[in-house]
Design brief:
alpha/beta, Rossmann fold, eight-stranded mixed beta sheet, 10 helices
Length: 254
């Protein structure tokens, strides 16, 4: 992977393919390998840019609090480094929250937006408290509890659960803690939707145990021009559970 210095961190990324630029952002607590299965299906259509969000994968982090805006600023700095003024941004789960922050901060730099297994709502108070408790638990006891709890929620497929577990186990506790706090404090992006003039693709598995498919339907209702693809039987990682359908949907951003 390549690495650049931005915002007091080292941001790692890889780049594949040719075509219009498309940034693929992984969710929590994963890394860019989440997209490995769809990259071969997209690299003839897009110039794919796959970063590890700060703290995850091979990227470093800071130990002071940061926000979704900081993650988005990292991505803007990466695009600056690559000489790319405008790109599509696709975010999975927490990566979707980063993509929405990018859309709010840098709307003129977006050629399209993809939300995969994500939502526009902020955390309700009980969910926010749960994230802070989880961050405290990671600080005191490590990541094992989060890994054990989240693994079966990603997918019902035991083979893919093993992939998710292995990916989560190689992440640093500091990345968990920073991301949990940032997600807890993220803004509600519902009002942002009406300002979107670029293409929007929404992809959601109807068996998602982490973010219900209703969240995707709500975005579609608020943004009728968006392209919604619901994938029957898929859980929280449709780019692995249904890679062909996910890739075809993302090609709408070309």
């Amino acid at each position: 992977m390549e690495k650049i210095k931005v915002n007091d961190i080292e941001l790692a990324y890889t780049r594949r393919g040719r075509g219009s630029p498309l940034v693929l952002l992984h969710g929590y607590p994963l890394d860019h390998h989440l997209w490995d299965d769809v990259v071969p299906l997209l690299e003839d259509t897009f110039d794919l840019i796959l970063p590890d969000l700060r703290g995850f994968g091979e990227s470093t982090t800071v130990h002071t609090p940061y926000t979704m805006d900081d993650y988005a600023s990292d991505i803007a700095a990466l695009l600056d480094h690559l000489g790319i003024q405008k790109a599509g941004i696709v975010g999975h789960s927490m990566g979707g929250y980063v993509a929405l922050a990018f859309a709010r901060l840098y709307p003129k730099r977006l050629s399209g937006l993809g939300l995969v297994s994500s939502q526009v709502l902020a955390d309700p108070s009980d969910r926010k408290e749960a994230r802070y408790k989880s961050a405290a638990d990671v600080s005191e006891k490590g990541i094992d509890g989060v890994v054990a709890t989240m693994t079966p929620k990603f997918t019902s497929d035991e083979r893919l659960q093993a992939f998710a577990r292995e990916t989560m186990e190689r992440q640093q506790p500091a990345a968990y803690i920073g991301a949990l706090r940032a997600m807890a404090e993220r803004m509600d992006s519902t009002s942002l939707l009406s300002s979107f003039t670029f293409r929007v693709v929404i992809i959601h598995g109807n068996a998602d145990a982490l973010i219900p498919a209703d969240r995707a339907r709500e975005v579609k209702a608020a943004l009728p021009q968006a392209h919604l693809v619901e994938i029957g039987g898929a859980g929280h990682i449709p780019m692995i559970e249904a890679k062909e359908k996910t890739a075809e949907a993302l090609k709408q951003l070309a």
